[in-house]
Design goal:
Length: about 200
Amino acid sequence: MPRPKAFDEQEALQRAMEVFWKKGYHATSVQDLVDGMGINRASLYDTFGDKHQLFLASLQLYRQLNRWEVTQSTRTGEDVRTTIRLFLQAMVDEALVDTSRRGCFVVNATLERVPADPDTAQIVCENYRALEEAFGALIEEGQRNGEIAVGQSPAALARFVVTLINGLRVMGKTNYAPQALNEVVEVALQALSPARV
């Protein structure tokens, strides 16, 4: 009969996510994970598999947490342009308070692991598709009520917004001034706005 685990799996996974998020996949050793998770190597391997499997589980956890935030952000009750502005502004604010310059775990994984790791690529692509779908629905609503330009399809504009989000997150890892990041948000909102006659 197997012994019950002496640790909380979800808490240990969250700690692993923090280690990978801070250091990246390649710079993270198994010892870093053991230390960060507060468990021994045998427990790590028995519960989560190898380093690669643990990384994928950590990335999925981050994605689940992030998906909830996106859902909440895109259901504020505000008009569509305000909702998009609030979301983009949240990306800027998040970057500015991130003194450790961790950035976004999904973006970091994209830059470090894709295309060398098909498993990571699949998770990353699923995440971007989900974001595009959320913003596509929002933009379609905005086009119907006259808030968003109708010259492009909602899907194309959603890809534009997701690409912008990823760019803001990468720029946020550097020393860009807040004004520079805020200007990017304003330019994006102007691009989404219907043309004035």
